[in-house]
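Request: When convenient, would you put together a sequence paired with its structure tokens?
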Amino acid sequence: MKNILLGFLSSIAFLYATETFAPIEQIEVNGTVKDMTLHKNELLVATDNGMVQVYDYEKKQFTKTITLPKVKDFTGDTVPPRVFSVDKIAQRYLLLSDSGQGGYVNLWIHENNESKKLIKAEDKIAAIKARFLSKEHILLGLLSNEAVLYDISKKKELFRVQLSESKFSDFALNEDKTQAVFACESGVLNVVDTQTGKILKVLQGQNVDNVYKVDFKQGIVSAAGQDRRGTLYFLTNGKGTYIHGDFLIYATALSPLALRVAFAMDEENNISVYDVNSKSKIAILKGQKSTLNTILFKDENTLFSASDDDTVMMWKLN
């Protein structure tokens, strides 16, 4: 009986054994990475050097570069704008960049090798993140923690909703882009209907300080917190749980099936990957050079990550 029990415990330990992985590829880009998105076999990388670079990770080569015009900073110097946010739908690219004027942004559509400005600094919009909902509609997250639905053809806002008085941090869309979860410095998360701006659910109680990043897959939300908590919320019942880290948690991502979650859990900039159901650590990804800011799952076993430097890393869990 004792041998059977020991065998069972050994099998459980093996099942949840933590493996260590090194990156399978390091992709050098032209500037410090500010944002990344995945589109089929393409990785879009936005940098602080006024560029978006498109990398085909199957062919292992860059296929496109979008360069924005330089701007004047507060000292009067002409510099490349920081590109805070990037997205793509069909052959239309969306870029959100620094204008150099008082924290206000420029919002660009790049199509047919031409970049056109939708929102300019004079419009006085302090947005942090932008994503396509459709080819004609964009969701914006403003520093003031307002959610904005913007119509491209009409060049107007369809709604602007104040979610709270706390400073905005991040938002993430669900798979069909009908809902978005917004994070802010209070630790409270708001799930919003992207067509109306209505707050559908408030998620709270797990993070007690600023949430830096969120992800949203299969009705599950993950949140990376300043309070060293890697949080998981389940929308079916609104309940949550968290995994305690050793350092400020700057980034998170859920796998497409939400079976796995990744957090930047320590000051060595390692990525810890957990089983969502058991919260058991199944992998540590080592090799990141500086503070993590973005993690993306391509599938259940393939990830991309970026830090405050010019290197994007690709990882395989098996």
Summary: Residues 1-15 have pLDDT under 50 and may be disordered. Residues 41 and 56 are 6 Å apart (CA to CA).
